[in-house]
Design brief:
Helix content is 61%, strand content 0%. The model has no long low-confidence stretch (mean pLDDT 75). It is mostly helical. The protein is built from 4 helices and no strands. It is rod-shaped.
Length: 115
């Protein structure tokens, strides 16, 4: 039934366009309207027929590809050797007079607390 209905619409649009183009209905000030309306309706009807005759093969959506992340590196606490090396360097700075005793105590506390 859908094809007969569309066929009758197309036939009606085409006959109206031919009637208007033949000059039976003439207007003095809107000679441009008949071809415009007839072309628009005919184009819509033919476009609908062509669109409905083709099977739809397009995908509505695609599944996105999975995104893989690398795991964060495991926390490695500073080794006691590196803490001892930092304390020796701090002692050398204090012995050389490069830092004040107050700075020495602050940095030593920071090193021992893991900062």
């Amino acid at each position: 039934m859908g094809m007969n209905y569309r066929g009758s619409i197309v036939a009606g649009v085409l006959s109206a366009a031919l009637l208007m183009a033949s000059g039976a209905a003439q207007a003095h000030h809107n000679d441009w309207a008949a071809p415009l309306v007839g072309g628009a309706l005919g184009g819509y009807a033919l476009g609908t027929l062509v669109a409905d005759s083709k099977p739809r093969t397009e995908k509505v959506y695609e599944t996105p590809a999975p995104v893989y992340y690398e795991p964060a590196p495991a926390y490695v606490p500073p080794s006691t050797a590196s803490i001892e090396a930092r304390l020796r360097q701090l002692d050398a700075l204090a012995a050389g007079g490069y830092i004040t005793p107050q700075e020495y105590q602050t940095r030593r506390t920071q090193i021992l607390n893991g900062a």
